[in-house]
Design a protein that fits this description.
- By secondary structure, the protein is α+β, with helices and mostly antiparallel strands.
- The chain has a single domain, classed as Immunoglobulin-like, CATH 2.60.40.10.
- Helices cover 28% and strands 34% of the residues.
- Strand 1 and strand 2 form a beta hairpin.
- The radius of gyration is 26 Å and the shape is elongated.
């Protein structure tokens, strides 16, 4: 003979499933990497006005920086166009899903109109190219997302 299902049994079953769901959710939340993407997040937030000024300076340029990925050579090309002065360039290759793969390159006293960056060592996927440069008078900034398909 089967026992009759009453409200007390229903509450007990609900409580068991609820506690089980909480335990699974807690376990899964401990398996996710919650690191900050940028180490000095708060310092960068405070200095945002200088970043904004660099973006506005770039928007006033006659010829904007052109960023492209050449699939046949596996290179990122930064085309600044003709420059009157030598420029100092900082390139950050930012990987949105993993901060440990980020890469920073410095180029000083560049007089050529373009810079090539080899991407053979980079993992395939989405990258954000952040370029900051200074021509001795003003500082500029541009960022652009690229999909790199390395061999």
């Amino acid at each position: 003979m089967m026992k009759k299902f009453n409200w007390g049994t229903g509450i007990f079953i609900f409580f068991v499933f609820y506690v089980g769901w909480l335990a699974v959710t807690l376990y899964r939340s401990t398996q996710i990497d919650h690191h900050l993407v940028v180490e000095d997040y708060y310092a960068k937030d405070i200095a945002y006005q200088t970043h904004y000024d660099k973006v506005k300076n770039r928007e006033r340029l006659v010829r904007d920086l052109y960023i492209r990925y050449q699939t046949d050579d596996n290179k990122i090309v930064l085309d600044f166009g003709p420059q009157k002065n030598e420029i100092d360039v900082i390139v950050n290759l930012y990987r949105p899903d993993n901060k440990w793969r980020d890469l920073k390159k410095n180029f000083n006293n560049i007089s050529e109109p373009s810079i090539e960056i080899d991407t053979n060592d980079l993992k395939s996927g989405r990258w954000v190219v952040k370029v900051e440069w200074n021509d001795g008078v003003r500082s500029y900034y541009k960022e652009e997302g690229l999909f790199i398909n390395s061999a």
